[in-house]
Amino acid sequence: MNILILGDVYGRPGRRILKDQLTHLISEHQIDFTIINGENASGGNGLSTKNARELLNLPIDVITMGNHVWQQKELLETIADFPQIIRPLNYPEPCPGKGYDFFSCELKNGVTKKICVVNLSGQIFMPNLSCPFNTMAPLMDTLKKSADLVIIDFHAEATSEKIAFGYFMDGWATAVYGTHTHVQTADERILEGGTAYITDIGMTGPIDGVIGVDRQIIIDTMLTKRPNRFVTATGNVQINGIILAIDEIENKVSKITRLYETYEVEK
Amino acid sequence: MNILILGDVYGRPGRRILKDQLTHLISEHQIDFTIINGENASGGNGLSTKNARELLNLPIDVITMGNHVWQQKELLETIADFPQIIRPLNYPEPCPGKGYDFFSCELKNGVTKKICVVNLSGQIFMPNLSCPFNTMAPLMDTLKKSADLVIIDFHAEATSEKIAFGYFMDGWATAVYGTHTHVQTADERILEGGTAYITDIGMTGPIDGVIGVDRQIIIDTMLTKRPNRFVTATGNVQINGIILAIDEIENKVSKITRLYETYEVEK
Amino acid sequence: MNILILGDVYGRPGRRILKDQLTHLISEHQIDFTIINGENASGGNGLSTKNARELLNLPIDVITMGNHVWQQKELLETIADFPQIIRPLNYPEPCPGKGYDFFSCELKNGVTKKICVVNLSGQIFMPNLSCPFNTMAPLMDTLKKSADLVIIDFHAEATSEKIAFGYFMDGWATAVYGTHTHVQTADERILEGGTAYITDIGMTGPIDGVIGVDRQIIIDTMLTKRPNRFVTATGNVQINGIILAIDEIENKVSKITRLYETYEVEK
Amino acid sequence: MNILILGDVYGRPGRRILKDQLTHLISEHQIDFTIINGENASGGNGLSTKNARELLNLPIDVITMGNHVWQQKELLETIADFPQIIRPLNYPEPCPGKGYDFFSCELKNGVTKKICVVNLSGQIFMPNLSCPFNTMAPLMDTLKKSADLVIIDFHAEATSEKIAFGYFMDGWATAVYGTHTHVQTADERILEGGTAYITDIGMTGPIDGVIGVDRQIIIDTMLTKRPNRFVTATGNVQINGIILAIDEIENKVSKITRLYETYEVEK
Ligand SMILES: [Fe+2]
Ligand SMILES: [Fe+2]
Ligand SMILES: [Fe+2]
Ligand SMILES: [Fe+2]
Ligand SMILES: [Fe+2]
Ligand SMILES: [Fe+2]
Ligand SMILES: [Fe+2]
Ligand SMILES: [Fe+2]
């Protein structure tokens, strides 16, 4: 069993490359279950209802989110219509949407795996949500009972918090992967307790911008310290993510492989 | 010509693995010039005079620093004794030490290359130093005239700032590499203008800690939000960095290769 | 009935001026109950067991704390011996100490008032504790049942968070006052619902430093951006705080008066 | 000679109360020169060209700004048309507008005073502008030569930075006053070297909001951690500021008086 997980899909270039390439990637890598992070899918800022539908027409099983989750305000109301969308669990209740859910994945051999997908936001250099460590701790017993696999998108900035959370989940979660920095890290590994871990899986979108945004706009902002309207970068694109090969007997990751594909876009 | 650059050397485990392996790495990869980041070499906190001497007894040409540079207070006075140490250029003047310097590297073919090594700190989620973009801009003409190669250690947290700085230097600097997050990124590449770039080259030190620190201490800190004394992690170690292959005619990087070595340590 | 509340007591100068003047202030203003903030009482950093005892030998009924609460590590163990010490409620559980408690205050006319004192930390520009708004909300019913008066020390940096919390508590709490910035604000008032409010009650300690610290050290730190060891300022001192006049029938504040006393210290 | 300085004018309620009351205040307090902070005059976000004109039709001599200065983008171009507008000096050059300027003030006795007004932004918990201490230091000699009085609006969040800057300027500047927190502090005084100082002069605008914004919106934001569109508060208003009485012989402040006026607004 193989699980494909793709990093923050950024704007139209990110959505378009998935439309073009996702089916191909899934067949090439014999993928059984696909998760993407969608917090930047609508012009870099959140996920509109229309773009959510568009993405979920592709073979995507779950969309996780992050700090940009509510930037398209309509999602506050429409998120209830999308059982596949998971937003950070550590928003204070009551909050529209859900922070984790269970998804069934039927394998080619007829076996069905129950996958719990969790989305959490870090605290360091991030908005003031509840502590992800203390949010997760009391749920661990219950969640594990109802799932064969637990996959956690830990959406955070600081490497220290991400690594610490990976160790905190080691032996309990199937995999903990980071999102949010939009740059893939090279530290993928299976921790001592068997949990697959990587600090950040990267971004799916324009290569030549600054984490998605037109680079000249960001350089100008850095030089002048004056606000600018952000515009999505154009040009070539990348698909960033990981593939988790699952040992179906043990329900553990046998291999975590980084995916870093680049594509030329016709001008 | 090959240049070896190693990420933040962390504590005794980091210093020890360099003592054991650096000579071997240099000969294996036919390295002509070696730069390390030393801001965490003394127990994670700065660089003591003694440890500076110890490291510079190894075949290291330059030590760059970062936000921890002044944590061993004695270095404020002794840094003047170490021409090989470069601290972030964007500290306000007057400040002990220097933010860049020129180093001669004699190649096996008798040619001597003049290498300018620059150290800069980012501003986002970092201490309030001067803007690295505006600090660098007025120096570009002068520095380039006196050097065959310009290598920049951009010590910063935010991926956006690091990538933007890479593009800002593209076509001018030989290479811009990030340090500070202690996690190597997988985005190494040669930008359009010919500058080699990577968001972070990673850390040289204990693998099983949290960016160098004992992991249980950090998990406890995250759970309790109470202060703890940090202790360097024990166990296996890693050497993280990059190798820049230089085209000696063009004085440009022909290849940037990530180095991610792990070593078992006897208990 | 009059309640005296004094802002962050800073170091030895702060403790000493209380020893000299507190009894006098209490009799001058006919005070029935006294609360001080003690997070900086020991050299600016937390509260040692010895200094806690020393302060509680004075006519002080309650000591509230703040982000510095655990800087004297011994307090983690000895706080249990001091029923009068209240630390921020929004530390994750389990945490030594308590975030609120009920205190009996016998008035001169023989009536006894039950006073609930709460300590909360803000989140903006502060350590990552739980949300004070969401921490407080579920406790409101229970606390009010057991107390005649509820007094809240809201230890926070941002004026927006402090004012918003004041309004949030308006009509429920007897008084909400801010601490932490060490500078008294001039916005004391009684909100529409009857809750007394002030953004910050100020600091009790040296006048001529920078929020308690020797001023030249702070200016040097600002100019050089290099770390310095902080030393408590010397010279003249101030006592900052508020006096709440309580309507004993309504159990509401009838008047909130700022106290801003300065004292010359012999050299 | 008396100088009136008013804190951040917030939105339409702030502009309107100035239209209604400024002339009266000026005559009541025999004011010779008036400075206001205008960074929030247009709906809380910056200063539009139209609102700048509107304010400068009132007897206002200088408008200082802050971190919101460029939120009305048109001001980037029109600021050149307004010699009375001063924006933070520590924006990187080139930047539209100016960080200080000299203004002539003719007194009733025929004497003309040259007043240098400076605007600086702090760094702590603020956008990454250049260090205000190091920006100011090299200008001190020149500025003082051309001015009888130097008045500095130090727009900053942290009390430590504001107080330290006050001491840094002590004996050189005529007055240093803080803006940005929108809450007036009670620590006005004349420092040892003769410089008048106050940590924050407060806000001119709605009383019953949260630093200008409708309070329920801010409470909701605090409780839900989800973004909200900010709306200016309605209801009663305040004028906050200071009056500096100047000794015309010594060109020093003889008295600094806080102004904290409240006005009922018809519903
Ligand atoms: Fe993202
Ligand atoms: Fe994000
Ligand atoms: Fe480091
Ligand atoms: Fe660092
Ligand atoms: Fe304090
Ligand atoms: Fe504090
Ligand atoms: Fe403002
Ligand atoms: Fe401001």
TrEMBL record, chains A, B, C, D:
Pfam families linked to this entry: YmdB
InterPro entries documented for this protein: Metallo-depent_PP-like (IPR029052), YmdB-like (IPR005235)
Residues that span the membrane, as ranges: none
Record Gene3D superfamilies: 3.60.21.10
Stated name of the protein: TIGR00282 family metallophosphoesterase
Species whose genome carries this gene: Acetobacterium malicum
High-level lineage: Bacteria, Bacillati, Bacillota, Clostridia, Eubacteriales
